[in-house]
Amino acid sequence: MSDAYNLLIERIKSINTLSSIAFLLDWDQEVLMPEKGVFARTQQMSLIAGLSHKRLISDETQSLLENAEDAQLNELQQANVREIRRIFDRQARIPTKLVRELAETSTNAKGIWAKARERVNFEEFSPALTKMIELKRRVADCVGYADEPYDALLDEYEPYAKTKDIETLFADLGSKTAALLRTIEQATDKPDASILNRHYPQQRQETLCRQLLEVLNFDFSSGRVDTSVHPFCTTIGGPGDVRITTRYLENFIPSSLFGTMHECGHALYEQGLPIEHLYTPLGEFASLGLHESQSRFWENCIGRSLSFWKAHYNKVKTAFPNVLSDASVEQWYGAINHVTPSFIRVEADELTYNLHIVLRFELERAMIRGDLDAKSVPAAWNEKFEKLLGIVPPNDREGCLQDIHWSMGLIGYFPTYTLGNLYAAQLLEKMKVDMPDFDELVTRSELKPILNWLRENIHRQGRRYRASTLIQNITGKPVSIEPFMNYVTAKISTVYGL
Amino acid sequence: MSDAYNLLIERIKSINTLSSIAFLLDWDQEVLMPEKGVFARTQQMSLIAGLSHKRLISDETQSLLENAEDAQLNELQQANVREIRRIFDRQARIPTKLVRELAETSTNAKGIWAKARERVNFEEFSPALTKMIELKRRVADCVGYADEPYDALLDEYEPYAKTKDIETLFADLGSKTAALLRTIEQATDKPDASILNRHYPQQRQETLCRQLLEVLNFDFSSGRVDTSVHPFCTTIGGPGDVRITTRYLENFIPSSLFGTMHECGHALYEQGLPIEHLYTPLGEFASLGLHESQSRFWENCIGRSLSFWKAHYNKVKTAFPNVLSDASVEQWYGAINHVTPSFIRVEADELTYNLHIVLRFELERAMIRGDLDAKSVPAAWNEKFEKLLGIVPPNDREGCLQDIHWSMGLIGYFPTYTLGNLYAAQLLEKMKVDMPDFDELVTRSELKPILNWLRENIHRQGRRYRASTLIQNITGKPVSIEPFMNYVTAKISTVYGL
Questions:
Q1: Which of B122, B149, B176 marks a domain boundary?
Q2: In terms of domains, do B136 and B263 share one?
Q3: pLDDT tens digits, one per residue of B408-464
Q4: Do B62 and B187 share a structural domain?
Q5: Cβ within 8 Å of B, A 269-298
Q6: From CA A66, how far away is CA A75, in angstroms rounded?
Q7: Would you call B245 an interface residue with chain A, using a CB distance cutoff of 8 Å?
Q8: A270 to chain B: which residues are within 8 Å by CB?
Q9: Which residue range forms the structural domain that includes residue A300?
Q10: Which secondary structure element, helix H or strand E, spans residue A242, and what is its range?
Q11: Segments in chain A below pLDDT 50
């Protein structure tokens, strides 16, 4: 082992330990902090962000990094140093003052967004969004980019990805989705989704969600489940402390059910990361797209499959006696795979979901380019929504105020959701080759071999490879929309009797 | 305003912001962190402790402090600088390495203590206690002391207090308490406390505690109530984020009821501190003894008074229909003021409570002196317990394993509990002179004027004065045991018909 390497790793671990505290500050604010705590919390967040940034880009870190790069390293060490260099170069270009300003603005803007959303008043949020866009544009200018500023932001969440590739992928996906939607419209045998809108008492939903988490092998000794306005997953202390949240709608059960399975997928990835590399890049997820592939895999590829519900539909029936006594498992399966344009992204079906992402991608790209100002977002949103999905949100709460992302400065983040859908389908395709009894395993509720496949191929790899390389290594081909289109077309054909 | 002063204050604010994060890390660990989170949490705690210590004792802080001391300052500024100097001098003598070792040992030892307590196995905890005593003894040696090492530890919690004064005060209090106990033993008209051991379902206790918190003017927009093994109050983000915990015993209602009012008293102090001095000494409590005076005031002087229950006993009856239908408010008052030697400090009556403190004070002082080793604590505890209270704990869970304090390194802390009892009684005495209709206010549940008296005289003063000076200023005389003995004797006379 090289001393130079160890010294660098020690430094990085201490910086990442510090950063990890910000995740607790944030989780606490989302889940349970009292209202008036926001004043002090803003200062705490800003301080941690500033301190860890300053320590990362310090001369000390730089010289440790240079020494490690000159040392004899094995392949794993090389990967770790490569990723540290990547983060260092990116962060060193952003002034600490801007980092702190971002942290403060985000902490404040989240509160403003939550209130504006509650009161369905976009104007309350508009100035905060303007400020955030301006800050993120400044980040892009500091970091630098080849084609357009959005590249610099996208790269933070999906390393090495390019806006123009996303644009091409999304254009193809958009037109094929539109074609499939037209076919569905003409189908005569449509599933009845109204059974999902019956009355499902919250407490029973909570119990059911907990059961499903156990089925999916969520490790409760290394995590928690709580309630928040916007469901999320966060890692507070490495694989040993991974927390998810969900929300409950008594007249729409998929919200908690699939939200929980979705966040559980994220959590399984985090709980499976190599703890021996805690607080170094090798101990982190490869990209947000890959992260999303894990959540979408468990939410959709497993959680919306007929095989899965053959094993677990009884749990739903038991949780809500008499509510579903007239509905067979096939009807349930049809309902949860019912495809129809709707307003809320996190509750959209698998097919139209990607159109929600295309919309957000186009809007935020325009904002960062300077082609769209915050004030005009509601109008632009509604116009584009109608074009893509054929419907117009009745208000901004169900329109442009629904997501927390922009308030937090997560701009360039949305495309990773659709990348996740594509990765998940491509992984599923390969998994079924490796495990020919895949469907039988799911029906028998033997999900451990499936989790282990993901653990070995993805989770245990941490950030050793780029996401695109990892997908290529595992599946033998580059990322494309074909596996997803095949997967979703096949499912829709069975549900709609096409 | 002096520039030198402002620069110092800015520095101190940033250091205290950092330290405040440790309170969230700690609260989270106590209340809801998943089991396997402890590995990363230990590192997070150690890092924050080390960083804030390093920043406090840095040359930069020192020179800012010296500049501020040379500047022209008003009285408030002088007080702030005086207290910063006090903390600086103390902390500068403790090496950062020792501070981090303490933080790590404490985070680990808390977990070990909780398990040992659960399994009623002192031996599991003994090595951690040995280690902690050794570290605290090293702290005392670094800080320095005039008479004995315990002085250096006591001073952390009750600034300017001396072991020998505590010893004198406690000796007097101990003998007067023993005499009063003998009188009680001979009383023929003893209250029946068994009504407190009836079945009180937890959920209804929770509702009742919430109602009482509202009665006591706890500000829920600036705080939370949760459950933990050992009830506590902690301040995470200044007066805007003050959190208390409690615990529920279904067959002993005083545990949650008076525990909640106790922690609420602490919270009211914190919620009332001057936010304009947030993260500087002027914005902090004066001493832990004074803090405890606030909790004991609301728990005992208010919460165990007949006036209070004349207004609120109906709430208890409503919360538990039929459980107390045979008990009058006078019987309830008698039961909650029943005096009898018992094992658990936090559930002890007002009179014998102080004997629990005398015991802990003597044991920890002996440990720090080197006269008692950790291994011998159970035997020493039981022997002393019998001498002071006439009974022997049936096991260590109800004996020397009951308190979290030693595991956290809180040694020199226990005496502040009894100081709090003395301060509270002395404040009450003066309050009744200032507000002759005090009892009527309580009976009418008009507690705002009482809270405002405390706000003005104590809370808003922050750390402007030493605790002993503040008590002298408010009551016109130095701290003594007389007001407490008068208060407790009068109460016992009514309860026991003496």
A1: B149
A2: no
A3: 999 999 999 999 999 999 999 999 999 999 999 999 999 999 999 999 999 999 999
A4: no
A5: 275, 278-279
A6: 17
A7: no
A8: none
A9: 163-496
A10: strand A242-246
A11: none
Which residues in chain B touch residue A14, judged by CB atoms under 8 angstroms apart?
A: 47
The pLDDT value given to residue A122? 98
- What ipTM was predicted for this assembly? 0.88
One domain, residues A117 and A167 = no
Q: Are residues B344 and B211 in the same domain?
A: yes
A3-31 and B38-56 helices, crossing angle to 10°: 100
> Would you call B44 and A17 a contact, using CB atoms and an 8 Å cutoff?
yes
Point out the domain boundary residue: B149, B176, B196.
Answer: B149
Q: Is B269 in the same domain as B141? A: no
Same domain, B72 and B205: no
Residues β-bridged to residue B245: B226
Residues within 8 A of B (CB atoms), A 193-222 only = 219-222
Contact A236 B47 (CB under 8 A): no
Question: Is B74 inside a domain boundary?
Answer: yes
Is residue B157 one of the residues assigned to a domain?
A: no
* Pairs of CB atoms within 8 A across A/B: 116
Q: CA of A135, closest CA in chain B: separation in Å?
A: 24
pLDDT of the residue at A497: 87
State the maximum Cα–Cα separation within chain B, in Å, rounded to a whole number: 69
pLDDT digits (tens, 9 = 90+) for A91-106: 999 998 998 899 889 9
Instruction: Report yes or no: A340 at the B interface, CB cutoff 8 Å.
Output: no
If asked whether residues B235 and B128 sit together in one domain, one would say no
Between vectors from CA B463 to CA B461 and to CA B469, what angle results, nearest 5°? Answer: 80
User: Which H/E stretch holds residue A98?
Assistant: helix A96-118
The answer to whether residue B154 sits within a structural domain is no
Catalytic site residue from A263, A299, A350, A364: A263
Question: Given strand A242-246, what is the order of strands in its sheet?
Answer: A223-227, A242-246, A233-235
Rounded-to-integer distance, Cα A213 and Cα A264, Å: 7
